[in-house]
TrEMBL record:
InterPro entries reported for this sequence: Aminotrans_V_dom, Aminotrans_V_PyrdxlP_BS, PyrdxlP-dep_Trfase, PyrdxlP-dep_Trfase_major, PyrdxlP-dep_Trfase_small, SP_NH2Trfase/AEP_transaminase
GO molecular function: alanine-glyoxylate transaminase activity; L-serine-pyruvate transaminase activity
Organism: Tumidithrix elongata BACA0141
Keyword Transferase listed: yes
Protein name, entry field: Tritium exchange subunit
Length: 383
């Protein structure tokens, strides 16, 4: 059916009608007094969702742009850093470091497994000369649905004393609890098309005081992504370059909706949807890539039964139900499909997706479950 597409991927995520209407308005001048008022309100709301009193800066860029800004503003060529690498986006952090001549030591884990905080502890404690300048990790690994233990890894960074902690919170900010000030996180990057409930196009970087000290001596090239410029203009409720005006106005709307729902309710909703998706997969006899202890609240990576290709499942669901699930990346292509349940997603959406998965498995000849078992399991968790 035309115009009935339903996104159940980890980004872009569904956009509420109120935010879509803000996008459809005639633009206003990005240097106007009216837009300055919008920026002031949006900045305050961003600090609320980030749980910080420090700077949260807006870039007209994707989440990867925010990640690159997190590197070039606070590190120098040749710096030694530890990079958590247990998925596509942890791998990307290392690639960005390589591009700028940073000495990135990968701390690896198998895709689908969480990073081991003890490895970070051992490496940081062994660094008696304090040569490690940063520890860089992905909180919610979008490619695998794994949540890394940010709090424990951060505690080891704090014990080191010198290193910054730089965090990719692209699929956790706005979906999971990321208490930036309580944990004294130094740099946190995220993107608009995830938990913020608006389309791709804006990146966000939260910066703490320790990172700003590092900024003073960092020597990597930067211009458009210079967060010092962004900070200076943000103090005047502006941006150093032309921003995506209507995206910022849509963000004002979506953040207002999130404030109305409340942080604890947002986190509880995402946890409930995570639990429902996982329970449904188990009831259908499907595998789960991440274990229960490290499962992201935003994405569930499902392993299909032997003999069924994940891409075939996705294709049939898209064709028959206009529901889009995400595929596996790199060596996981065809081996998993991913259910995105972050942002503007309701209980109804979870049940709809689970029902479509059930129907598709039956159509493809899979008989390893009792019809209705997945829906029942999801309902039990949702209620």
């Amino acid at each position: 059916m035309e115009d009935k597409l339903m996104l159940m991927i980890p980004g872009p995520t569904p956009v509420p009608e109120q935010a879509l209407l803000a996008l459809a308005k005639s633009p206003i001048g990005h240097r106007s007094g009216d837009f300055s008022k919008v920026m002031a309100d949006v900045t305050a709301k961003l600090k609320w969702i980030h749980q910080t009193e420090n700077d949260v800066l807006i870039l007209t860029a994707s989440g990867t742009g925010a990640m690159e800004a997190a590197i070039v503003n606070f590190l120098s060529k040749g710096d030694r850093v530890l990079v958590g690498d247990n998925g596509k986006f942890g791998e990307r952090w290392g690639d960005v470091c390589d591009a700028y001549g940073i000495n990135a030591e990968r701390v690896k884990a198998e895709w689908g497994k969480a990073l081991d905080p003890e490895v970070f502890r051992a490496k940081l404690e062994a660094d008696t000369n304090k040569e490690i300048k940063a520890v860089i990790i992905t909180h919610s690994e979008t490619s695998t649905g794994v949540m890394n233990d940010l709090e424990t890894i951060n505690s080891h960074v704090k014990a080191h004393g010198k290193a910054l902690i730089i965090v990719d919170a692209v699929t956790s900010l706005g979906a999971m609890n990321v208490p930036i000030d309580a944990l004294a996180l130094d740099v946190v990057a995220s993107g608009s098309q995830k938990g913020y409930m608006i389309p791709p196009g804006l990146g966000f970087v939260a910066v703490g005081p320790k990172a700003w000290e590092a900024y003073k001596t960092a020597n990597l090239p930067r211009y458009y992504l210079d967060l010092g410029k962004a900070r200076k203009d943000a103090a005047k409720n502006s941006t150093p370059f032309t921003t995506s005006v209507n995206m910022v106005m849509a963000l004002q709307v979506s953040l207002g909706m999130m404030q109305k729902e409340g942080l604890e309710s947002i986190f509880a909703r995402h946890l409930r949807h995570r639990n429902a998706a996982r329970a449904a997969a188990k009831a259908l006899g499907l595998g789960l890539l991440a274990d229960d202890a490290s499962a992201s609240h935003s994405i569930t990576a499902v392993v299909p039964p032997e003999g069924l290709d994940a891409e075939k499942i996705r294709s049939v669901i898209k064709k028959n139900f206009d529901i889009v699930l995400a595929g596996g990346q790199d060596h996981l292509s065809g081996k998993i499909f991913r259910i995105g349940h972050l942002g503007f997603v309701s209980d109804r959406d979870i049940l709809t997706a689970v029902s479509a998965i059930e129907a598709t498995l039956q159509q493809l000849g899979y008989t390893g479950f009792t019809p209705g078992a997945g829906v029942k399991a999801a309902i039990d968790k949702l209620s």
